Amino acid sequence: MENHALKQTTVLVAVLVLIVTGGQVRGQQNDVSGSKPLISSAEDLQKPAVEVRSQSQVPPRLPSFLPYLDDSAHVYLTSKDIGPSGYDLELGFDRNCEGQHVCFYASFQGRNALVNLSEVKPVRVKLRNGIRGWFYPPQIGAYCSNSSIRWAERGFYYSIEMKCENRGTLVKLANSAISVRQQFAHGGSRY
User: How many angstroms separate the CA atoms of 189 and 181, rounded?
Assistant: First the structure.
């Protein structure tokens, strides 16, 4: 009986260690070769950008920086939906986030049709190259909802969304995404 209780306690402690450490054992590295790659900087978005360019008619607009990330703080590409009419890339703090608000970091969308509108009243913002955008502030209640910035460019519709983010950061993200297109144009892309 005492041996059984010891085994149960050992299993419980092991499960708690896995939960607290995110499943990592000391010295073990994250599996970045899996289907949900590790994103530790905006440079890691280049691979999905290449996929968007090859599979979609909508030119990618992904930012050249991601706030709050460094060597110790990173996110995963948790969802990727790319088709001829657009793309939707979602990043989360957990590899298995799957759209849950608690682990959501950001999403980037590009469509050849208008992106879903929010019930929140937007604020008009000026973006790079004379582009007009709209900032949708977060709603604060039991938790802080996502905020987003949206704009139209060359007949395509774009959206960047982050959890409870301010207007200044989202404008900076959108401006960096708009300026990144210049880099793609010089890289031999059709966009």
Answer: 10
This prediction's pTM: 0.75
* Distance between CA atoms of residues 170 and 159, nearest Å: 10
Task: Provide the residue ranges of all domains of the chain, joining segments of one domain with +.
Answer: 1-30, 31-186
What is the structure's pLDDT at 35?
Answer: 67
CA angle 32, 71, 88 (to 5 degrees): 55
Mean pLDDT of all residues in the chain? 79
For the beta carbon of residue 145, count every other beta carbon within 10 angstroms.
Answer: 18
Q: Exposed e or buried b for every residue in 10-48, given b needs 16+ CB within 10 A?
A: eeeeeeeeeeeeeeeeeeeeeeeeeebbbbbebebbeeb
The CA distance from 141 to 180, in Å, is: 35
pLDDT band at 101 (very low <50, low <70, confident <90, very high): confident
